[in-house]
């Protein structure tokens, strides 16, 4: 049998949206059955369904030892071979253009509507045109071209309002009155149009609702998790961390579409005009899923819990600040919002028994295999740990250098735990003695000196040996302060005073706006601190001293990245403010800033 005769014996189907995650896996599964002539249509003009993978340093994305490299090449090769042997074709189509759709759909007996706009598209008009109006065009084109079956790839989120949990939800759940994400509202409208079109002429329709779709390359979940981990948002678990999600591996979704087509072919009544949840049938604690992905990407998994209510207040404040800043400058969106926080604290599990019963669906890839294959495709996003291998651990850390590389650094960084604990106990005693006892400072100091004198007197009166234990005497030199240490302290104090006076004199000349603003902000911060109880400020300060430097030493890379991001944001804000000032004032400030920087460079 010739190639042309073989292609004529195949049933023609169209995969609309064949370049997205769900669409391309359906294409490969249809081709592997060797029963279909597969027409692939999408917005993009090129044929390869996989784009080039970003090439990180020292990694060859086409290394045959990498499973996804073989996976991607096999799929592209399968499609190329199918096109050359008249078993597949590719067309560029605009879903908002019905005439183009009719031209592409013509001759197809089955249409798999897999198209959905990319997650980067946030404009409501564009989303409405592609999801709702586009689906309406697909239905009309199917009716005009006498298509027998239309299967729509919907989403389980059409019944999720973004706030309230869904535990073992089934197909009888009603659509919510209000959506947190308008995209889900539009997908729900498109789904209803597809279901209402069932039985209109010879057209049979149904819809599938995958939950949290994931798979190799192009899935939104893994890049989102990695970005959140880079930005430091996934150091903690939000809430109690017990909420579960249902997930759908993309191969299982492709298998479900073929099962649905076969069920429609058999004219089963519950299938035509029906909707079906599709999951892996393995509900998973969302934070276990996050940890599995992050650990495979060489990032630390969340290790402690944060109360949702308190953290929600913080995120809402961050959103308000970001909203105000975005009115002046263009900033990237926050990686974590109130809507995503609601999402990560909700349960989203669904019952697939109806899909199992009526379309014969059963997962063909487990969660464990799906996660493994997915993270393998994102090796270019994995954390580069080469700097840890090349780092000289004998070199002092930045935190150690900031603290002077001496005994103070050893104590604050917990290098000498015995001295650190001794100092903490001493500070706790003084804190209670002077601030929490309720006595005036002079009275507390007098009582403390009194106790010291009594202790020293009794210590001197005791014999040198008590019950066989020797009692060392306290030498007089113990109470002496070395002259060199006292001289260094006085020199440091005098130098700091002289620098402060010189800076004050320089600021008073009106030539250094940079240091003037620093001094102004510092004094304003001091003013705010004076409104707070002194004991509370001191306690917070002590806790920060013994924790912040230690955390910085342990998480130096992450802290430096956050500080760099904050510096970039502040520079954008300053540039935006400078642009809104009068021209003559901008020139004056710019000249003063540059002059101050030149003088600082000369001094250094």
UniProtKB/TrEMBL annotation:
Major localisation: endoplasmic reticulum
Transmembrane segments: 421-442, 448-469, 528-552
UniProt GO MF annotations: oxidoreductase activity, acting on the CH-OH group of donors, NAD or NADP as acceptor
Record localization: Endoplasmic reticulum membrane
Membrane topology: Multi-pass membrane protein
Keywords (A to Z) from UniProt: Endoplasmic reticulum, Membrane, Oxidoreductase, Transmembrane, Transmembrane helix
Key word Cell membrane present: no
One Gene Ontology CC term in the entry: endoplasmic reticulum membrane
Entry-linked InterPro entries: 3Beta_OHSteriod_DH/Estase, NAD(P)-bd_dom_sf, NAD(P)_dehydrat-like, Reticulon
One GO biological process term: steroid biosynthetic process
Gene3D superfamilies: NAD(P)-binding Rossmann-like Domain
The UniProt record lists the keyword Transmembrane helix: yes
Reticulon domain location: 408-597
Protein name in the entry: Reticulon-like protein
Organism field: Amborella trichopoda
């Amino acid at each position: 049998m010739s190639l042309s005769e073989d292609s004529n014996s195949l049933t023609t189907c169209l995969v609309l949206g064949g370049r997205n995650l769900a669409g391309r896996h359906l294409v490969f599964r249809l081709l592997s059955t060797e029963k279909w002539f597969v027409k692939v249509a999408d917005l993009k003009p090129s044929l390869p369904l996989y784009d080039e993978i970003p090439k990180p340093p020292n990694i060859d994305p086409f290394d045959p030892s990498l499973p996804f490299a073989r996976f991607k090449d096999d799929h592209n090769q399968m499609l190329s071979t199918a096109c050359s042997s008249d078993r597949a074709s590719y067309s560029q189509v605009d879903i908002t253009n019905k005439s183009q759709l009719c031209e592409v759909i013509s001759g197809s007996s089955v249409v798999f509507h897999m198209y959905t706009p990319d997650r980067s598209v946030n404009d409501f008009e564009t989303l409405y045109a592609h999801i709702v109006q586009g689906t309406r065009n697909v239905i009309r084109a199917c009716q005009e071209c006498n298509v027998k079956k239309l299967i729509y790839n919907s989403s389980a989120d059409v019944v999720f309002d973004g706030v309230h949990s869904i535990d073992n939800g089934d197909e009888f759940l009603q659509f919510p009155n209000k959506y947190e994400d308008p995209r889900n509202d539009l997908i729900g409208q498109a789904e209803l149009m597809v279901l209402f079109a069932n039985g209109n002429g010879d057209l049979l329709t149904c819809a599938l609702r995958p939950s949290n779709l994931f798979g190799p390359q192009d899935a939104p979940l893994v890049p989102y998790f990695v970005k959140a981990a880079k930005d430091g948002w996934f150091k903690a678990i939000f809430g109690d961390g017990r909420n579960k999600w249902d997930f759908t591996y993309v191969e299982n979704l492709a298998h479900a579409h073929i099962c649905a087509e076969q069920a429609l072919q058999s004219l089963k009544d519950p299938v035509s005009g029906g909707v079906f949840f599709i999951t892996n049938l393995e509900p998973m604690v969302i934070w276990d899923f996050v940890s599995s992905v992050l650990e495979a990407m060489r990032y630390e998994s969340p290790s402690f819990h944060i109360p949702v209510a308190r953290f929600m207040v913080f995120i809402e404040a961050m959103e308000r600040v970001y909203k105000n800043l975005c009115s002046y400058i263009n900033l990237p969106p926050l990686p974590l919002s109130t809507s995503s926080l609601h999402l990560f604290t909700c349960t989203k599990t669904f019952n697939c028994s109806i899909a199992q019963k009526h379309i014969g669906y059963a997962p063909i890839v487990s969660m464990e295999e799906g996660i493994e294959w997915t993270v393998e495709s994102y090796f270019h996003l994995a954390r580069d740990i080469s700097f840890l291998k090349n780092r000289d651990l004998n070199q002092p850390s930045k935190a150690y250098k900031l603290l002077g590389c001496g005994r103070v650094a050893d104590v604050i960084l917990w290098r000498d735990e015995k001295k650190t604990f001794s100092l903490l106990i001493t500070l706790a005693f003084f804190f209670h003695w002077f601030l929490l006892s309720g006595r005036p400072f002079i009275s507390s100091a007098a009582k403390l000196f009194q106790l010291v004198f009594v202790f020293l007197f009794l210590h001197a009166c005791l014999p040198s040996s008590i019950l066989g234990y020797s009692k060392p005497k306290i030498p007089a030199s113990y109470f002496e302060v070395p002259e060199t240490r006292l001289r260094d302290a006085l020199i440091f104090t005098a130098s700091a005073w002289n620098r402060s006076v010189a800076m004050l004199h320089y600021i008073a000349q009106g030539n250094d706006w940079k240091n003037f603003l620093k001094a102004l902000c510092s004094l304003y911060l001091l003013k705010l601190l004076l409104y707070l109880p002194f004991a509370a400020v001191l306690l917070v300060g002590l806790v920060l001293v013994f924790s912040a430097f230690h955390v910085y030493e342990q998480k130096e890379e992450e802290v430096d990245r956050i500080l760099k991001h904050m510096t970039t944001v502040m520079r954008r804000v300053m540039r935006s403010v400078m642009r809104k000032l009068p021209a003559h004032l901008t020139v004056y400030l710019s000249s003063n800033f540059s002059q101050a920087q030149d003088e600082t460079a000369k001094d250094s």
